[in-house]
Write a structure and sequence with these properties.
alpha/beta, 10 helices, 2 domains
């Protein structure tokens, strides 16, 4: 996976939704009535007040137990990363929803972490994570699991490699039967900045430099003590100001 993407996942969401809605419209005359009701909603890009949504974090052995609810939407489907080694099972799971007459099925794309197991088997993604002021990888405070010593490090949504993984997951979901995308923890690295003291990775520091250069003139930056924005390092400024630990930085901000 050497190619880097600059597109954000939200653009993918809109593209897939528009494409799926058009395809659903073309197939509407061939679907049974229960499927048509759901596809009409997709074509109109709206939900009915009577729609019942499923959030199947764990699937029952017999999906027919969902039938009594007359669901029309799966809003929180599985993230393909949990099925990466058995995608046919994932495809059957999504097909099970379609067999119930559900046509609006979301693929969950988790923007928070690549998961501890995936990080264990794919160590290169451990470099695509959020880091605190000391350069230490950050773990979301509410995730306490680990896999063979590897923790669920916070993926940095400014890192091209992690962006690429998000796109791969979205494509896998759509290719195996999902008709929508659910962006889970959609704020990505912004949440890390707000709740966990990050991110100070090279991509976030570079992004901040570009933002400064776009927002301020060289003269304005000079007045702020930044003589050469291309060499400015926000992390070094923070540490030089006395905030050398994650706790000190978080307390300050």
């Amino acid at each position: 996976m050497k190619k880097k993407y600059s597109i954000i996942p939200f653009i993918i969401l809109l593209c897939f939704l528009n494409l799926n809605c058009q395809n659903t419209k073309n197939r509407a005359s061939d679907t049974v009535s229960s499927e048509k009701a759901s596809s009409d909603n997709c074509v109109n890009n709206e939900f009915r007040s009577s729609d019942i949504s499923l959030m199947p974090e764990w699937m029952p052995r017999d999906m027919a137990v969902f039938k009594v609810l007359h669901p029309g939407i799966v809003v929180w489907g599985s993230d393909p990363i949990f099925h990466i080694n058995h995608l046919e099972t994932y495809k059957k799971e999504l097909q099970g929803f379609k067999d119930l007459g559900i046509n609006m099925i979301a693929c969950n794309v988790w923007l928070l972490t690549a998961t501890e197991e995936y990080l264990y088997h794919n160590p290169e993604y451990r470099e695509a994570v959020c880091r605190d002021i000391t350069g230490t990888p950050i773990v979301p405070p509410w995730l306490d699991g680990q896999y063979k010593g590897v923790k669920p490090y916070w993926g940095c949504t400014n890192n091209p490699l992690f962006q690429e993984l998000l796109i791969i997951k979205a494509r896998l979901g759509m290719a195996h039967g999902a008709t929508m995308l659910h962006l889970d923890d959609h704020l990505g690295t912004f949440s890390c900045a707000e709740f966990a003291g990050g991110c100070f990775c090279e991509y976030c520091l570079e992004g901040f430099r570009k933002w400064l250069a776009k927002k301020y003139t060289p003269q304005e930056l000079s007045k702020k003590g930044i003589k050469d924005v291309t060499r400015f390092n926000y992390a070094e400024l923070v540490k030089a100001s006395g905030y050398t630990t994650k706790k000190a930085y978080r307390d300050a901000v």
